[in-house]
Amino acid sequence: MAQRTLLEAINEGLRLEMAADDRVILLGEDIGREGGVFRVTEGLQACYGRERVMDTPIAESGIVGMAVGMAIADLRPIAEIQFMGFLYPAFDQIINHVGRMRNRSRGRFGCPLVIRVPYGGGIHPPEHHSESTEAMLVHMPGIQVVVPSTPYDAKGLLVSAIRSAEPIVFLEPKRIYRSVRQEIPDALYTVPIGRARVVREGTDVTLIGWGAMMQEVTQTAERLDRDGVAAEVIDLRTLSPLDIPTIITSVEKTGRAVVVHEAARTCGLGAELVAQINERALLSLEAPVQRVTGFDTIFPLPQLEKYYLPTVGAILDAVNHVMTF
Amino acid sequence: MVLDTHDPLKGEMVEMLAPDGTYTGPVEPPLDDAQVRRIYEDMMTLRIYDRKAVSLQRQGRFGTYAQMEGQEASLIVSTYPLQPQDWMVPTYRETGAMWRHGVPLKLLSLYWMGNEFGSHMPEGVRVLPMSIPVGSHPLHAVGLAYAGKYRRDNSIAITYFGDGATSEGDVHEAMNLAGVYQLPCVFFCQNNQYAISVPMREQTASATIAQKAVAYGFPGVLVDGNDVFAVYAAVHEAVERARRGEGPTLIEAYTYRMGAHTTADDPTKYRDHDEVAIWRERDPLRRVQVYLAARGQWSEDWEHELLESCTAVVEEAMNEAEAVSEPPPQDMFRYMYAEMTPALKEQEASLLSQLQKKD
Fold first, then answer.
1. 3-state percent breakdown (helix, strand, coil) of chain A, nearest 5
2. Ramachandran bin of A120, using left for φ above 0, alpha for ψ from -120 to 50, beta for the remaining angles
3. Based on the domain organization, do B294 and B355 belong to the same domain?
4. Spatial separation of the C-alpha atoms in residues A252 and A130, rounded to whole Å
């Protein structure tokens, strides 16, 4: 066991899985000599060479499209896209090929690849560097979307993603890359994809979140404790496929739910979660499910950043609304 | 060696068999008579297939279909230098090349009839399903070539695309990546003069497509795409270069689509009869026929035999494909993931219960 940040946990997962399986190849911009713009891949090129840790030209569609071919040839490519705003040039490959190759070939060619993408706001960057558009990916058939919020889950989910036969977009909450630490096992282990984690149990209200927002969500739950409200907290961890039973079981128990995401509100994943809860647990509800989200605006430059991301205060307001409805 | 002798920047085109059937190539032709006879037979099979496919589409037995007539030399001969371990990454106009690299005509027909199982390649056949979005698939060939180089398994990748695709960003990215990593990848561009309706001169200001290779740092060569010897010489050289680890090659096969873009297109809107007539004179089959006849390798009797046997091959494949029963609706859900997700299981059950109610 060792104390690891979320970033170190991902690095460790990559390093160990590369040692275990020589089909694992990393490709992306500045991931070799530089170790990636966030240093997630630091030291890996020195360890595994340029053939397995490829510094690529600046070509996001090229990176993902090339990974498709590598995956079909039974390699296990792991592409890094520097920021979620730069994933869009690769959407053509993701939507038109990554998510379709298995179906198109009726199971003959799978596309077992991982696309690692640091996502989300809060690091005071230029435009395009704060995106949280996971709902667009969740909407697309054929791919899966994973978002860890702890070092333990980051390493275990990453290893599962690499070993999975499915194509997986692995979203990394870059705001908490270095701020969250946790004791995790040194060896390889896996965390199952498709299962949410009940972070803490409670009986009064269900708080649902993922990624970096889990910080605000758990802080909110702690505050509520002091006010005598027992919140159950769910970290989705996998956004596609969604773990609906865990959510429904919880909402049936608490009768109230608040969904929190930093992504824009309209057609955000919160909308799907509200619909699922309404379809399956309407009669358990004591109040309409509330959403605490980012706005339907462009993510602002650093000066206005603090107004965009959901705060503990905003989540408390939503909880107050469902508690007093 | 045609890659060294024909400079695409000067517009030099590799030509060995003139449209009138006169052989102008090296003293020792790159293909012997037996090979040329075989190629002639393949091209004839493909032409019969193509015409029959259009006819079946008109009868509602094929879906929308992409025609190949006029491009038989490029499609057939480009596969001759390939080995079974080599990957082919085609578009929708490569039915003929896919067939020659191991995909049965029955399967290809099944695809055009609208059954995804037509893209379920037989085990050991290294051909990807046809890619419909223009120009995004050459990147897959680059990845396959990278895997071949990484494993040192002696495989190469060949990808096909049209003149229109060269305007797509992904084609640029693919050639750039292949050049940077010196990958065993052959880019085979069939310049059939039109991207649906837009002519080549409105697609690019480059005089040739082949010359674009110069900027990527690897050879490009322009060949008469209706000339079996020229196509063979260029592809053979490119494939052997790739196999030796010398990197990618871009080949521009200068040809012409005699038919429409697809059965949904009307080419009379954008090109005139005179132009089509000129290209009819450059027909790839007829010039091989004249070549073989001059060498005592062709006769009317053989032609009739071929017509009969090739037609039989095509009809058998199409009949077999038509005999395949329609897939069950569950197939929509079954192949989305290696393991079906709970949501898909639920949606599948919902569809099936809907269907049961209708029965």
1. 40, 20, 40
2. left
3. no
4. 35
Q: Cα-Cα-Cα-Cα dihedral of B175, B176, B179, B181, to 10°?
A: -110
* Helices B105-112, B33-58: crossing angle, 10 deg rounding: 30
Contact B136 A92 (CB under 8 A): yes
**Domain A2-184, CATH among 1.10.275.10, 1.10.8.80, 3.40.50.970, 3.40.50.300:** 3.40.50.970
CA-based nearest distance B148→chain A, Å: 8
**Are the CB atoms for A309 and A214 separated by under 8 Å?**
no
For an interface test with A, which of B127, B139, B152, B350 has the most A Cβ atoms less than 10 Å from its Cβ? B139
Q: How far apart are the C-alpha atoms of B3 and B25, rounded to whole Å? A: 15
Nearest to B336 among A64, A70, A103 (CB): A103
From A271, A277, A258, select the one nearest A317 (Cα to Cα).
A258
Query: ipTM of this predicted complex?
Result: 0.97
B143 interaction partners in chain A (CB closer than 8 Å):
65-73, 77
Structure tokens at B358: 């209708």
A238 part of contact set with chain B, CB < 8 Å? no
State how far residue A24 is from chain B, nearest Cα, in angstroms.
11
**Across the interface, do A69 and B150 touch by the CB < 8 Å criterion?**
no
Q: Under DSSP, is residue B96 helix (H, G, I), strand (E, B) or coil?
A: helix
A197-324 CATH fold:
Rossmann fold (3.40.50)
| Residue A68 to chain B, least CA–CA distance (Å) | 6
Q: State whether residue A76 sits within 8 Å of chain B by CB.
A: no
Residues B341 and B243 occupy one common structural domain: no
* Cα dihedral B252→B258→B262→B264 (10° resolution): 150
Q: Do B72 and B204 share a structural domain?
A: yes
Residue B334 buriedness (CB in 10 A; 0-12 / 13-18 / 19+) = middle
Judgement on whether residues B199 and B315 belong to the same structural domain of the protein? yes
- Position of tokens 């469902």? A322
**Does the annotation count B270 as an active-site position?**
yes
- B242 and B353: one domain? no
**What is the residue-level pLDDT of chain A in tens, covering all 325 positions?**
999 999 999 999 999 999 999 999 999 999 999 999 999 999 999 999 999 999 999 999 999 999 999 999 999 999 999 999 999 999 999 999 999 999 999 999 999 999 999 999 999 999 999 999 999 999 999 999 999 999 999 999 999 999 999 999 999 999 999 999 999 999 999 999 999 999 999 999 999 999 999 999 999 999 999 999 999 999 999 999 999 999 999 999 999 999 999 999 999 999 999 999 999 999 999 999 999 999 999 999 999 999 999 999 999 999 999 999 9
Residue B82: name the closest of B242, B210, B218 by CA: B242
CA–CA distance, B327 with B345 (Å, rounded to integer) = 18
Residue of A nearest to B345 (CA): A241
Q: Do B143 and A97 touch (CB under 8 A)?
A: no
A62 inside 8 A of chain B by CB: yes
* Chain B partners within 8 Å of A244 (Cβ): 342-343
A314 in helix, strand or coil?
helix
The reply to whether B62 and B165 lie within a common domain is yes
Domain range holding B225?
Answer: 2-327
* Omega before residue A241 within 30° of 0, cis: yes
Residue with tokens 């979307």: A145
Task: Give, for A293, the enclosing helix (H) or strand (E).
Answer: strand A290-293
Which residues 6+ apart lie within 8 Å of B133 measured at CB?
A92, A96, A97
